[in-house]
Design goal:
- The chain is α/β, with parallel strands linked by helices.
- The chain folds into three domains: about 45 residues, 434 Repressor (Amino-terminal Domain); about 120 residues, Response regulator (Rossmann fold, 3-Layer(aba) Sandwich), CATH 3.40.50; about 140 residues, 3-Layer(aba) Sandwich (Rossmann fold), CATH 3.40.50.2300.
- The protein is about 45% helix and about 15% strand.
- It has 13 helices and twelve strands.
- The strands form two sheets. A six-stranded parallel beta sheet has the order 2-1-3-4-5-11, with helices on both faces.
- Strand 3, helix 7 and strand 4 form a beta-alpha-beta unit.
- Helix 1 packs across helix 2, helix 5 crosses helix 13 and helix 8 runs parallel beside helix 9.
- The longest helix is centred in the N-terminal third of the chain and has 16 residues.
- It is elongated, with a radius of gyration of 26 Å.
Length: about 350
Amino acid sequence: MPSEKSEQGRSVNQRVTIREVAAKADVALSSVSRALSGHPDVSDEMRKRVKEVADELGYEPNLVAQSLRSGVTRTIGFVVRDINNPMFALLARSCEQELRRNGYSMILVNSDRNIENENRNFSLLRRRRVDGIIASLVSEDSPYIKKNLSGPRCPIVLLDREVKGVNASAVLADHASGVHEAVTHLIKAGHREIAFVTGSNNVYPTRNRLEGFTKAFEDANLKVQPDLLAIGGFDADYALSHARILLHRNPAPTAILAGGHGALMGISRALKENNLTMGKEIAFIALDQLPYLEVFSDNISTVYRDTEAIGREAAILILEGIEGEKPRVSVIESEFIERASSQGGL
């Protein structure tokens, strides 16, 4: 079967070559290469002429060939723990925008909360020869962690994760200060039966949030009640099953904190099943402020961290690493934002 032809008689799958651009522009091959790569030793007139011809012919540089010659791909790998979490969409978008401004593109891979998938994602990015990797890890103690963070010969930036003994930068949120403020608000309002549903403590956010939670009780000379803590999973199913148990406790919690997107979804379902309204029969605080919350309700109290700032900072840190700067840790503050949902329950 004959190949499909364009109006110029070229196969639709056939690339325009740099030789064709040079021939039409009547310049040397090296001049085309320098003009299109932004080399300083090219006049503005030459650069304009070559660019016009390249655009006219539809020439696109072969990035694979360029990376083989230079050892630089100008791409950054972004490993997402769970793409279902809308927080990562905001974070990845702001990160990608900052990278694009600096001439880099981004490859996003989703681990789907599975350490085997995460291991395969790191392997894929290593084979792609990315210039750096930004990662939100499923766990800080998976059997692959040392290999994946120490193996790549490129800088690493961790998102809200602490892994000792690796040469990596990190962007951490100060969850503890916001949670401390939120729980102190509840205690001052008279709450004592305060439940907390969140993910496993094998990751930094849970440990840091628990620090703030515990300190608020200590500051009030109160003791945390262990049976009001459900710590083990970030997914909605985990939160739903444990919230059902908590809500049938005697005495039942008068306030509840949701540690993450999945916890928010699961707890919301459990409250609905039990005909409980946030801000009336029970006080409620979400430990992340996501855009969709305002669509459904503008009354939910939250502990806010600037997700877009985290994404931009991750891009800045990975670019610093590419330039040879030493790894460092950047901390993004959090704050409690009081709304109607945290005012009921007593």
